Amino acid sequence: xxxxxxxxxxxxxxxxxxxxxxxxxxxxxxxxxxxxxxxxxxxxxxxxxxxxxxxxxxxxxxxxxxxxxxxxxxxxxxxxxxxxxxxxxxxxxxxxxxxxxxxxxxxxxxxxxxxxxxxxxxxxxxxxxxxxxxxxxxxxxxxxxxxxxxxxxxxxxxxxxxxxxxxxxxxxxxxxxxxxxxxxxxxxxxxxxxxxxxxxxxxxxxxxxxxxxxxxxxxxxxxxxxxxxxxxxxxxxxxxxxxxxxxxxxxxxxxxxxxxxxxxxxxxxxxxxxxxxxxxxxxxxxxxxxxxxxxxxxxxxxxxxxxxxxxxxxxxxxxxxxxxxxxxxxxxxxxxxxxxxxxxxxxxxxxxxxxxxxxxxxxxxxxxxxxxxxxxxxxxxxxxxxxxxxxxxxxxxxxxxxxxxxxxxxxxxxxxxxxxxxxxxxxxxxxxxxxxxxxxxxxxxxxxxxxxxxxxxxxxxxxxxxxxxxxxxx
Length: 474
Known about the structure:
By secondary structure, the chain is α/β, with parallel strands linked by helices. The protein is built from 13 helices and 23 strands.
């Protein structure tokens, strides 16, 4: 009988398999990427470890009503802003992918979360980029000492086989991997960071945490466009995808502290509207729970033209931000919009509504829009304040200093209701603002708004809003 081959040739770039060696992979077209791989090791590992070797047999179905709801419990990371973005804490048997620019604080966040996590179980920190001594130096610099680090086990390797051996020996409840691009397995090729390596290693680690009632954090590198590097399938495999963003000094911060924003692009166990705000200092990342004056520029006297204060929602939190607008004659035949903190398409729609319904010519102007503090705003409630800033910049008429604006502006010039209007007004009043311009409250909020804001100015459309701001003659 012909003996069955005990090896195949697998492409290290795309994972394509061939029975014999070829100089060029027929799937991805790369040269010299087919590597000899043992068939028995892969088959034994995939089949034996998952089913027969563990002695668990084949998986069995059971009624959903018989599932213990405690299996989906959460544990606190000890960092309030991280828990907020995750939806209330770290969900057991879940995988979280954390991406961001180099040096923004991804490794610092994971190390601080490992030290502050409210659990009695062991925590495994896997570093494929730094040595154990370098991680310890960072922990000392962050002031992590004593009992907070005694529960942390550290291993510096990228080998999946070594990691799985340590996982089965330590049985951690929380696993931090820094980073996904440094993981590799002999069954998926010999080059770390390839598409096949990342998918294979991530799948194995995610399967382990779901079987052992643990949670996994994976740090991921990003491309120059700011997206997570590697296969898009990696984001589909995990339960939560977090992005770290950085800005210049926030308007209300002093010294050299910089602001960091943690956002969820995907969250199977919570909302993606929440935002975590941190400052980076000598002691690492510090949470910012009170954002009342963080994004407002402190100035005395009247506001300059082109500035409006908006009340926007970030998840369950209401924050006040300063919208800044500038209009100058277009340098070319076509006007342009320069806005990175508010979607430029939204700026163009608001400008078109102003030109149509107020006769304010903006089509021959270059529009510059900025948000003080560098926070990115996606909520529709910013549109009326944006319209006010653009109108002020074009006409040179400053808005009243004590006024806060919120509302959605439609293409027909109408101002539509926004969510949680009473909470926005309450936040504005607590900061000393005396006026609030917005739409009529919804029926469910009418009583709360009437009790908290007798000074609310209600506008039904953009023309009425301009009259309420500047008087009847405008």
